[in-house]
Amino acid sequence: MSLDVVRIKKDFPLLSRTVRDGKELVYLDSGATSQKPYQVLDAERAFYETSYAAVHRGAHALAEEATIHYEDARSAIAGFIGAAPSNIVFTKNATEALNLCAYAFSNATSLSRQGAGSRSIDPRFILKPSDSIVISEMEHHANLVPWQELCAKTGATLRWFSLDDEGRLDLSNMDTLIDSTTKVVSIVHQSNILGTVNPVRAIMDRAHEVGAVGIVDGCQSVPHMPVDIASVGADLLMWSGHKMLGPTGIGCLYGTSEILDAMPPFLTGGSMIEMVSIETSTFAPAPQKFEAGTPMVAQAVGLAAGVRYLEEIGMDEVAEHEAALTDHTLSVLTAIPGVRIIGPSTTFERGSTISFVVDGLHPHDVGQVLDNLGVAVRVGHHCAWPTCRRFGVPATTRISPYIYNDESDIDRAAAGIIAAQEFFGVAP
Amino acid sequence: MNLESLYQEIILDHYKHPRGQGLLDSPLGSAHHVNPTCGDELTVQVGVGSAGGLVVGYEGQGCSISQASASVMSELVSGHSVQDAETFRLAFIEMMHAKGTGEPDEEVLGDAVAFAGVAKFPARIKCALLGWMALQDAEIQSGLLTNQSEEHSP
Prior knowledge:
heterodimer; A: alpha/beta; Aspartate Aminotransferase, domain 1; Aspartate Aminotransferase, domain 2; 2 domains; seven-stranded mixed beta sheet; four-stranded antiparallel beta sheet; B: 6 helices; globular
């Protein structure tokens, strides 16, 4: 493996702690959230210690400095996916970013029903009961529930790509699923439960053929592989900061200039306006139009430091490292009798997030035994309950490594699974 | 902290050999509860037997703690009055909130004292309470219990 994991690990103070009576920690839950290197922690602290003030207002030196830091962070984060800074909106998290998108449709629909006055409402965002929204059966609840709610409010119909037994999208009916009634196509880039990497370019192209808005959930792809927004072809793409070394409380939404201009705002209030009278208001151009209130300035600064950290390693190297770990994980897990992978069984078009079930054991109990050995994994439905139902399991255990994990971490998890089988007396 | 303090023999035994599993033919009340963080599901049903005591049925899928707890619960309350079941339930909830301190009353809780160690694992408390919460709900649905004794759940 090309990554110097031993050196990288030293940058992450938390990873040197012990858990459960002195056991060395093996952190394999980065699909939920990543740990933070000194570089991120230091950047946030230094910003608070030297340049902190409100941004985009005030004429004093600190306000200027803080604004420069905030906008520099936006540039760095935009550059990470090959976007221009004005195409990046900061949100609280990726869930908020998805809601921002869904609310653009419900707000446009409500405004059009009221007769929007002098405001022009882009018809692409107005939904009728005969319209459809297309997602997939492997979406995180964040890319499912907001669309269910939008359908409930507008009468539109929710459609979805189903999955095959390997956990891949069934694209055979793409041209009928995405048809002239489709207004939104919102698909996950890499599944947070199955690890499947989806052919989002082809799906976005089909969305555009029918004039639909194309959205990609990049939460599990942007932190783990090189993502170039031009090759994804999405109108909107969101991801969270905390899964890629950044602080909690910041998410990112990329939008094309044309789409961001056309979308009505989500949250309204201070900072997002152009002109306000007591009767009515006009809005600032994007991205400010979508950043009402005091933004997450220190979090943006911290996330930019995370982006720089990843760029220094190189995203190609990150992806290569994870591909090698995926290969290793798949082979050690499938070598354990009674373990079944839920998701693609090969490294082809698949990320390092690997879900599995153990015959005769509930994931909670597997996770508990692993935890007792110092190995942190995720158990449950991973906010992808319909995906679990598709595979007939109530939940899975999930290993999700990152740049600070190596094969020995995977081996400790595998040993823990065998220990769980022995403890519960279910070893085949 | 060791695994045995969580997974007591009694718990493992109830998990592998659940008592009283299955639904009732004609329940007076039924409640379906889920643990939304892990997807565990449990249906608990109540009725009244010929001798006047509670009859409890249950069915679901979940981890060893939630399944064993439902099994112990059904064994403990079956044949008892609703008032007795409430005493058991409140004692069980108190034990779950004790963070592993204090001595649970074995006279009252019987096999259920085996779950005292679960209280030291905050993520598992909900698993242990699932059956008991569903029991209370089923009793309320059946009219056997009024809502006034509603407990604050964690």
